[in-house]
Input
Amino acid sequence: MPRKAQTESLADADAAPGGAAAVDRALSLLAAFRPGDRTLSLAVLAERTLLYKSTVLRMLASLEHARLVQKLEDGRYSLGPEVARLYSLYSASFSLEHVVMPALRELVAATGESAAYHVPQGTARLCLYRVDSPHPVRDHISAGDLLPAGRGSGGRVLAAFGGPAAEASAGADAAARELYERIRTQGYYASVGDRLPEVSGISAPVFRANGALAGAVTLTMPTGRYTEAHIPDVLRAAQSLSGCVG
Output
């Protein structure tokens, strides 16, 4: 009989409801590859997945057959050409709107306030997508509007996580640089009347799969309705998009 693992594998700990354990374990091997990894040894794959090496070898045999991984001459493993083929199909069918808009709608449903997705645009920021609050009193920004790079919660987050060039374009002085460092530390920014006295907002960064800044999710509301209780909702929305946007 196979040995029972003393430590639960990552795949077993987060198994797909109603799924197949063997598939979960095989997919966990693909997920073991991280940014910067070109090849991984059998030992590292076992360590990162918490699977026995014998189990890893069986899973790798199937993944090799499907060309999802390939074994190199030195015995190490890399991702295979089938990954590139699948990515090309995904890229061809990918629509940012189909990814971002559901997250914004969910955020509006949870908070009752307006949600937007902002991206850097030169020395400004572009409101790329927007879902309005159902309340009759709200701010009236629309998709396609350009907003200041260094004002408002969205502008502050893009400047904070966009690197020195973004800080410079936002006109960062010593006080602003200190603020941006604090934003990076806490992972979001909540502001009351930063861009306009009547408007307050909460923003969190969205990152590409390679860790680079992609944009910011921003929740805006009249200052009279501002509450920090919405911060976790904004963070969840941004985290759900990170790694899913190009």
About this structure: Residues 96-111 form the longest helix (16 residues). The mean pLDDT is 88.
